[in-house]
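Lecture 7, part 2: worked example. A protein chain together with nickel (II) ion.
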Amino acid sequence: MIFDTHAHYDDKAFDEDREELLTRLFAEKVGCIVNQGTNLELSKYGISLAKKYDTMYCAVGIHPECVDENSLKELDGIRQLAGHEKVVAIGEIGLDYYWDIPKERQKAVFEQQLIMANELAMPVNIHDREAHGDTLAYLKKYRPKGILHCFSGSVEMAREVVKLGMYIGIGGVVTFKNSRKAVEVVQDTPLEALVLETDCPYLAPVPFRGKRNDSGMISYVAEKIAEIKNISVEEVLAVTFANGEKVYNIRSAEK
Ligand code: NI
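Predicted complex, written out as structure tokens:
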């Protein structure tokens, strides 16, 4: 069974067939999905969606791309949502230096959410785009539990993240032609520290690159990891499923 540790089923790309698709995925090969929050409103929506499926959960949080002048004030709302039984993490939070969003504001919102996660004893799901140095500094300072999603750093950074007790999120990117860095990270990182993810609707694996991604396509990511590590696909799926349950404190999500 597949554990998708990072999805965005609130996205407009799923408006036409969201419930039909999720029902089919859960009936087939997907055992568990954790939907990520990007702002206050969509975090609320994520809870309402997760409530409809036994093994769908969600994270609540403010994504760095959604940070604006109101974000710090909205964190009380995020804290309230975090108490819901379907909420298993604070996410998607982090730093994005690719887009032109004021860095100081991003850092303040990220830092407050790391503090909140620690106070609530909840794991985090971290977004780090072109912000490796600052992200790692915050992880070392606050020592949260959780996942560094869509990992794009070096082997050395992956080792540091794993040493901090965090998991490395691997998705469609590892199947891309120019994925040398991601392949090296998978090679070097023990399977016990990897989790699988889609970031859907984005980052569909080869042979669906550029198309709408969904949790079922994680099979291709698992196949690629099995090939890199020279182990069976079944082992990749079983170990990463157990890792997902562990990092999100979900007891036997697989039915
Ligand atoms: Ni995401």
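The chain has nine helices and eight strands. The pocket of nickel (II) ion is lined by residues 6, 8, 36, 92, 199 (CB under 6 Å). Keep this in mind for problem set question 3.
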